[in-house]
Design a protein that fits this description.
With 393 residues, this protein is of the alpha+beta class. Helix content is 42%, strand content 20%. The relative contact order is 0.07. Its EC number is 2.7.13.3.
Length: 393
């Protein structure tokens, strides 16, 4: 099976219409198609690896038959409207079981391909009759229109399913956040408290080795608490209702820098911003969180061989703003620049720096606002530029 066929089948299965009952709207479209063609029988023929599945048939009982027997399978991959006045007189169809009496006695046959925006043919909107017929140009155009309506209904059904899955996912994340905040965070706080008491060895009862164990355990508790907080932040981004408002990018940068004050002072990082004039249509709190994560990442992954420098800039791109956060740090290899936005992804899995959640949270924030985010090399190649788009106010 070639790559194109695998992609076509993936697209077909992505709509989840195979072996599924048709809704009233699809059935109505098929009935209208029969009326337009002046016939009593019509159907949607969906074609997978080895079957033709009839969906929303009008004037006949729907069947599943081998792909090898399908009239529509002869030309549907070409994506062109096909019709013959008398299939029994056409060399391409006269030996087909649907024509020669083994399955049916079709004479007039016409099919409008169901082609996705990506060019994948799923099957056809098919009309047929047991008597020879002709089609006018007007009828052909209307049948093509109806095929496009079918694709739009498929897409609407898919979007509704995705939206429902997203709502369910966000609900599960909210439940997860509640469990994490109580059932995991609380015991860790207790453990941390006892470790602090042990570390405060006023009587000198602990030797140096025991003190090292306690210090190591305390660091592990701190890392786990940081991971829990990062997971909670990720969950809250999906669960909270978004505030619709405007935010000045320069002001959001200043707020993020206040939050990162200790880290900036410890690292000696220099932060530059040329974005005061950018006004974005977004949730101000989430924008601040987004910038805090990106600037904080630039500091965490700085190159020890040079002073840390981070630049925040913005430029107008039509109705959107393109915002960039550029650092001169260790950089991200080209083959990792997509993967770093996945949950728990790290460029160096052996590194204990970060939890692999920060950039996932950034992507979640940007996509909630209808924008895009991506990583690239900094100008000159030393460091990383994270770019994202948000709508302008």
């Amino acid at each position: 099976m070639g790559t194109d066929e695998r992609q076509r089948l993936a697209a077909l299965r992505g709509y989840r219409v195979l072996d599924a009952p048709a809704d009233d709207e699809l059935e109505a479209v098929v009935r209208v198609a029969a009326t337009v063609a002046g016939v009593r029988t019509a159907t949607l023929n969906l074609i997978d690896e080895d079957r033709q599945c009839q969906l929303a048939p009008a004037g006949l009982a729907g069947t599943v038959s081998p792909r090898a027997d399908s009239l529509c399978a002869v030309h549907f991959r070409e994506g062109e409207f096909v019709w013959v006045a008398d299939a029994a007189a056409d060399p391409a169809y006269k030996g087909n079981p649907w024509v020669d009496g083994r399955r049916g006695d079709i004479r007039f046959y016409a099919s409008a391909p169901l082609v996705t925006p990506q060019g994948h043919a799923l099957g056809t909107l098919c009309v047929f009759d047991s008597r020879p017929r002709e089609l006018s140009d007007e009828q052909i155009d209307r049948l093509k229109d109806l095929a496009r309506v079918v694709l739009a209904l498929f897409e609407r059904r898919r979007q509704a399913r995705v939206h429902g899955e997203l709502l369910r996912s966000n609900g599960e994340l909210e439940q997860f956040a509640a469990v994490v905040s109580h059932d995991l965070a609380a015991p860790l706080s207790v453990i941390g408290g006892y470790l602090d008491l042990l570390a405060d060895d006023r009587d000198g009862a602990l030797d140096e080795r025991a003190g090292g164990w306690i210090a190591g355990a305390s660091r592990a508790v701190g890392r786990m608490q940081g991971l829990i907080e990062a997971l909670l932040t990720y969950a809250r981004v999906g669960g909270e209702s978004r505030v619709r408002g405007h935010a000045e990018l320069g002001e959001a940068v200043d707020q993020a820098l206040l939050d990162l004050g200790d880290l900036i002072r410890e690292s000696g990082a220099t932060i530059g911003s040329a974005s005061a004039s950018a006004t974005l249509a977004c949730d101000p709190t989430l924008l601040r969180q987004l910038l805090q994560n990106l600037i904080g990442n630039g500091i965490k992954y700085r190159d020890p061989a040079r002073p840390c420098r981070i630049e925040v800039a913005a430029e107008r791109c039509g109705r959107d703003w393109l915002v960039t956060v550029t650092d001169n740090g260790i950089g991200i290899p080209p083959d990792q620049r997509d993967r770093v936005f996945e949950m728990f992804a790290r460029v160096d899995p052996r590194s204990r720096t970060g939890h692999g959640i920060g950039l996932s949270t950034c992507r979640r924030i940007v996509e909630r606002h209808g924008g895009r985010i991506w990583a690239g090399a900094a100008p000159g190649g030393a460091g990383t530029t994270i770019s994202f788009t948000l709508a302008g106010a």
